[in-house]
What we know:
The protein has 10 helices and no strands. The protein is mainly alpha-helical. α3 (31-39) crosses α4 (46-59) and α5 packs across α10 (142-166). The protein starts with 6 loop residues before the first helix and ends in a 7-residue tail after the last helix.
Amino acid sequence: xxxxxxxxxxxxxxxxxxxxxxxxxxxxxxxxxxxxxxxxxxxxxxxxxxxxxxxxxxxxxxxxxxxxxxxxxxxxxxxxxxxxxxxxxxxxxxxxxxxxxxxxxxxxxxxxxxxxxxxxxxxxxxxxxxxxxxxxxxxxxxxxxxxxxxxxxxxxxxxxxxxxxxxxxxxxx
Length: 173
């Protein structure tokens, strides 16, 4: 079953390249990923946009992944004034001070080991689930972790692309 394009997706397809690229950068900070998605416009459906995103994510180099991760704040510390990171990390909003302190400590240990922030698709997860995930993943090899991060970024991108395709905001200014 094919979904019909919605007004947000139509607007994204019709927007100027610079505006579309800026919107894609808000979804994922990887310029390689954004360029690949931009080059494939127009998208007939949101599912086609997802497929292009997944394919572009699969092709990202370690450097491209690092660029993408740089756009994400640490779990428990969403970017001030950024409704997207606050919404995505809402599972940490009501966490106890002890859990927040433990997440900070785990984030720092993870960053020391891997050289980047702990990245997880936090949408719908509790603070405890995120803590348990970082505890588990800190034992991974860098190669294992890079592929887990790639998959988590793909999930985040799909959530953000859904919002991009559904929002009635004007992205072409």
